[in-house]
Each structure stands twice: as structure tokens, then as C-alpha cells.
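Q: Given only this backbone (131 positions), what sequence would you predict?
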């Protein structure tokens, strides 16, 4: 005979605990902690922040259409997003095991490739719009 638990399995929402404004505040705190971790621990993230600090003002200084300006800004922010995700992948792989494994290498290489594509997008978009 199999035993069936008397309590139903809680759904994912029940496990999250907070809702409404309290959840937004908590999520903002987690996001800030993520930014701080990336800035402290990832040289590539710091370099991209510097690139953004240099290029974002230029995006608002040059005479381009609003759509072009939006693209100039979007590709810069995209590079930060990709680097945060790449760093998260690397941290997760390292958390699982520091052992060299082909799948771990593949995951890290794919994250690096994604960042390469985002940097290529910056170069192409800025080059096409400004040149």
C-alpha cells in the first residue's frame, strides 16, 4: 500500500511568501545585491559599466532620431543584461562543481559567446548610426 500525504503539495506561489509592494521591495533588494556582487566580483561587468558610463552620455549628445537614440541606449543596456546572465551561469556552474567537465565548459563558452554577440551588436549599431 502506498501512503499518500494528507497535505496537498504547495504550489510555487505559496512558497514565495510575499505579494504586492512587499514583494517588489524584496525583489529590488535582491536586484541590488546582484548588481553589487557583479560589480565586486566580475571585471568584465565593471568594464561594461565603464563603457556604458562613457557611451550613454554620447547617445544623448549626438544628433540622431529618437529611434536611433533608443537603439544606441538599448544595445548598451543589453550588454549589461547579457553579462549579468553570463556571470550567473558561471557562478552556477562553479557552485555545482569546480571539476573540469565538457558540459561545464560548454555552458561557460556559450555565455561568453552571448556576450561577444552583444558587444558585436554595440559595434554594429553604433557604427551604422554614427558613421
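A: Predicted residues:
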Amino acid at each position: 500500500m502506498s501512503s499518500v500525504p494528507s497535505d496537498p503539495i504547495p504550489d510555487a506561489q505559496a512558497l514565495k511568501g510575499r505579494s504586492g509592494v512587499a514583494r517588489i521591495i524584496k525583489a529590488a533588494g535582491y536586484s541590488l545585491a546582484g548588481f553589487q556582487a557583479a560589480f565586486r566580483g566580475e571585471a568584465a561587468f565593471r568594464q561594461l559599466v565603464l563603457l556604458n558610463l562613457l557611451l550613454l552620455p554620447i547617445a544623448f549628445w549626438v544628433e540622431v532620431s529618437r529611434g536611433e537614440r533608443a537603439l544606441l541606449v538599448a544595445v548598451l543596456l543589453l550588454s549589461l543584461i547579457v553579462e549579468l546572465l553570463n556571470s550567473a551561469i558561471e557562478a552556477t556552474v562553479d557552485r555545482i562543481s569546480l571539476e573540469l567537465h565538457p558540459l561545464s565548459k560548454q555552458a561557460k563558452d556559450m555565455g561568453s559567446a552571448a556576450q561577444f554577440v552583444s558587444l558585436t551588436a554595440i559595434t554594429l549599431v553604433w557604427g551604422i548610426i554614427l558613421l
